[in-house]
């Protein structure tokens, strides 16, 4: 099948500073070979090259979601899991669970305390007792929208052997009532006690679901994603999809060996890296480094913050150790292990105090063993101390923001940290002004992977909740926000010479939209539709 294609008669936004905008683009051999005006580019095409009349529509580089759990998102579909994201009351949770797919276990995902009315106004709290009345003796596990806690019933606790005497695991909590009995909420690494018991879909079910999800992303104009938690089994699934020619989205994988526990020791990391083939892959599927966790999330009061939470405490690191000093030392050693082996690290960090500690560790590793183009990354960077922006720029450390969490998590965050601090979250404007490379992301299935809402958020278009927008002075212009989904992710992947822009020699990844996302009004942007998505010169949507 040929990958030659001529697109003409539209607006080609190359996002290449040297190329500017054009009206036509020619693809051949999986690459961009010419960009310019219609006549010049058409003259460069070989006889018989398939041609598309754009009819004034807009071409952008393929959208790149810098942090999307592709396989998780695929397995969050209705054939595997009950979607609780829209449940606005316990009655709606009950109706959704009553319609759960057949199987030994009931699995749900997406509930939040602030969207279920009884939890939001304090009339009830998540409990195994309520869940027991709905699910009976069938074990049930309901994943919180953040993926940092689960709500389980008594049957699930019994299967896991969790009782009043079960100790909390490292970096986790079995939430208990006043008598010490488990309530059914398991936080951070405590999730592993139950999650490891869940029956797993078959290989064919996993691969089929992932391929369908890639096609769904293609319809949004997405051609690349970074999957940030890829254990060995998932890496093999991706390799199988690649070998079968079923990949329609480029995947950069970050290896991780511990989830759902966020805790990794330097010794365990060293052993894992000893057996990892980090050099395997190509432009369609490659390993981009590893994923580590520094802390938890603000909604669970597990992010490590300078300010105390309303109920007390500052959260903490999730690295091994007894107390902050030991945990900080372990964090430094984790980064140093990767630095010495020339392995890029992306670190989940949401609290400002944790971000300070991670940047300290990156600076220490660079001083001990310089690696000028390491391009380590802070994932989320939800709250950052003012002093850290310049340090990020100086060390060449990137940040992957999560604009869509302003829409999906705003009320939950405000309840914990207050409106003033929430207004400072995901400071893309400040980071860019300091010269830090920023990419944006959905973190699906934590949110829905709609880059249009992310762009609208950072450019000030009203959202579905009053806490969805940054402060006025922190807004981006439309092209800046779109670059967070194109050129920014490419740089963080060390792939800026291959994708993120449309210039001769780049990979032939692009999307044609029915309107111009740079100039469309707010609602028009949210309604923008990809009418053609191209990966490596081949039409995938």
Automatic annotation (TrEMBL):
Coiled coil: none annotated. CDD domains: YtcJ_like. InterPro entries: Amidohydro_3, Metal-dep_hydrolase_composite, Metal_Hydrolase, YtcJ-like. SUPFAM superfamilies: Composite domain of metallo-dependent hydrolases (SSF51338), Metallo-dependent hydrolases (SSF51556). Gene3D superfamilies: 3.10.310.70, Metal-dependent hydrolases (3.20.20.140), Urease, subunit C, domain 1 (2.30.40.10). It comes from the Bacteria. Residues 52-540 form the Amidohydrolase domain. Signal peptide: none annotated. This is Amidohydrolase. It comes from Amycolatopsis oliviviridis.
